Amino acid sequence: MNRTQLGNNNPYNQDNGVTWFDWPEEEDELVGFVRELIALRRAHPVFRRRRFLRALPGAEQAELHDGRTDVAWLTPSGRLMTDDDWDAPGRAMAIYLNGDAITEPDRRGRRIADDSFLLLVNTGSERTSFYLPGRPYQGPWEVVLDTARPSDRTAAAADEPVLMEPYSLCLLRQAPGDQAGGSSRPTRSSAVSSRSAACRARALRTSALSGNLPTAPVPTSPTIT
């Protein structure tokens, strides 16, 4: 992690600095960030789909006719991508993951429901403005992480449009309120104070070092309107 193999994609026979890991005695920021990502994935089954995404409505969406699919790809302008958009040279996109359209059941055959997320990705070398989508994929949204803000990943995002730094991504969670389809299902977690966030982060580090990662989601931030 956080190193280079100098272009060697198959260095299994390199017993030197190409493959050696320099594990620091003290936890660095990158290791802590990866732990947060692991905890986030374990807390939300929408990131652990066992079946292929089909861009089709889930069972409840088909009944409600709310127009949402299990996944949607959007342009930075907030509209659904077309075939022409896929062939365009743009280097930014947004992905909507619908937590209410998980088709696979849990181990006991029960329906799985989760929060919905919007992932903003900018792989280009210039800043890009993202406009948040309207119905049926509208917010409100709250920030879960932002790779351009290493010191405060749950800080409030800028007013729309969201200005994305080069080579960055931002993960937003659909917050309670006027959600698509009018769902009143509460979110899996709520915003916490900075002191509570610090305590949870400290507990996360301690659990990770002992080999026991918690399943609680990471702290959230104020809502984007």
What is this structure's SSE topology?
Layout: H1 29-43, H2 59-64, E1 71-74, H3 83-87, E2 92-97, E3 117-122, E4 128-130, E5 141-146, E6 162-164, E7 168-174, H4 194-209, E8 223-224
Antiparallel strand pairs: 1-2, 2-3, 3-7, 4-6, 5-7, 5-8
Helix pairs in contact: 1-4
Distance between the termini: 36 Å
Structural class: alpha+beta
CATH architecture descriptor: Sandwich
- Low-pLDDT stretches: 181-203, 213-223
CATH superfamily: Golgi alpha-mannosidase II
CATH class descriptor: Mainly Beta
Rounded to an integer in angstroms, the radius of gyration calculated over CA atoms is 19 Å
Per DSSP E runs of 2 or more residues, the count of β-strands stands at 8
Largest sheet: 6 strands, antiparallel
- Which strand order spans the largest sheet, edge to edge or round the barrel? 1-2-3-7-5-8
CATH topology: Immunoglobulin-like
Q: What is the helical fraction, as a range of percent?
A: 10-25%
Written account of the structure:
This protein is of the alpha+beta class and 225 residues long. It is 19% helix and 16% strand. The protein has a single domain, classed as Immunoglobulin-like (Sandwich). Strands 1-2-3-7-5-8 form a six-stranded antiparallel beta sheet, with no helix packed on it. Strands 4-6 form a two-stranded antiparallel ribbon. Helix 1 packs across helix 4. It is globular, with a radius of gyration of 19 Å.
